[in-house]
């Protein structure tokens, strides 16, 4: 079911993923500097669906979101982002979330709804994976996150919807630009 990608599509996916990684490092650093690492996680719940929309909508190929997830998860392995600790345990966590997003993008026909529902599905599934994984990893924040699971899951879904919708709006602004037309040709 994975479609063949053209070189220019792979470059686009890689560039947007690299931008996402840089933004994630920035939000992680900024949130840690102000003493609230959870803020970085909330920003990621907004930024990831935005970037996913900017990856999928121009390319429109099944597998593009999974490719984003693979690249991003391997880039994040040596960093404390996502789970507060470096390690390969991030790869399956991210892959579950992007597979959920990919499936939603595949089955929903309207681009706006793809972006919104894909963002919700991806962020909520990521959050659920974190709720499962944090206690298994013995992370200090696990108890606090479990106590706040319901409201944080709702917040993750809302941020995912907003991020996906803003990604859709950005795509609508650039869809007629030459570089997007060349990407789609």
Main attributes of the structure:
185 residues; mainly alpha; Arp2/3 complex 21 kDa subunit ARPC3; 8 helices
How is this structure best described in words?
The chain has helices at residues 7-33, 37-59, 64-76, 90-107, 111-137, 142-147, 149-174, 178-184. The protein is mainly α. The protein has one domain (7-178): Arp2/3 complex 21 kDa subunit ARPC3, CATH 1.10.1760. The longest helix has 27 residues, at 7-33. It is globular. The chain starts with 6 loop residues before the first helix and ends with a helix. The model has no long low-confidence stretch (mean pLDDT 90).
Assembly state: single chain
Task: Write the H/E string, N to C.
Answer: HHHHHHHH
Low-confidence stretches: none
Helix-and-strand structural type: mainly alpha
CATH second-level architecture: Orthogonal Bundle
Shape assignment: globular
How many extended strands? 0
Main sheet characteristics: none
Strand-residue proportion: under 5%
Rounded mean pLDDT is 90
Question: Percent of residues in helical segments?
Answer: over 70%
Count of runs of 4 or more consecutive helical residues: 8
- Whole-number count of domains: 1
CATH class group: Mainly Alpha
Rounded to the nearest angstrom, the radius of gyration is 16 Å
Q: Please give the alpha-carbon distance between the first and last residues.
A: 21 Å
